[in-house]
């Protein structure tokens, strides 16, 4: 998630945008009317000049911690029971440890029903291998999804 904060009425002689960004939002907005009154008074004396700065900061969707772009990874959630379309998350790189990769122990199946409807099924490798006494042999002897059926020959039959 990217947040942008507009900072108004910056005294360019005394306060930098960085210093203002470090102040809590509530103190900035609580003192805003005071700052506006001071600005109108001091502007007449040319001590203040009216400026605006936009501070853009990335925030982790998981923890709410802030960081710069180089500290973040983009994570796309392609499928989850709570969503109907893919969603993008901004995640700090150290937070990626919470996502344990199980791809080495996962079998992805595409199941086509007799009515030609398809769906993907995700099965743990251990559970998949228990479906047949020798699953390794079954897979080696199964037909491929592309090309010729194993054992067929190319030729004119002679």
UniProtKB/TrEMBL annotation:
It comes from Streptomyces bobili. Residues 26-38 have a biased composition (Polar residues). Residues 20-45 are annotated as: Disordered. It comes from the Bacteria. This is Uncharacterized protein.
């Amino acid at each position: 998630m990217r947040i942008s904060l507009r900072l108004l009425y910056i005294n360019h002689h005394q306060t930098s945008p960085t210093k203002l960004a470090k102040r809590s939002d509530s103190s900035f907005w609580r003192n805003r009317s005071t700052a506006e009154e001071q600005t109108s008074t001091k502007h007449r004396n040319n001590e203040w000049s009216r400026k605006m700065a936009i501070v853009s900061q990335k925030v982790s969707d998981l923890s709410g911690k802030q960081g710069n772009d180089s500290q973040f990874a983009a994570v796309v959630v392609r499928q989850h029971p709570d969503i109907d379309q893919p969603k993008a998350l901004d995640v700090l790189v150290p937070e990626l440890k919470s996502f344990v990769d199980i791809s080495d122990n996962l079998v992805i199946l595409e199941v086509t029903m007799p009515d030609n409807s398809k769906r993907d099924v995700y099965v743990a490798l251990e559970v998949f291998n228990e479906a047949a006494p020798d699953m390794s042999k079954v897979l080696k002897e199964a037909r491929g999804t592309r090309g010729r059926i194993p054992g067929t020959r190319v030729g004119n039959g002679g």
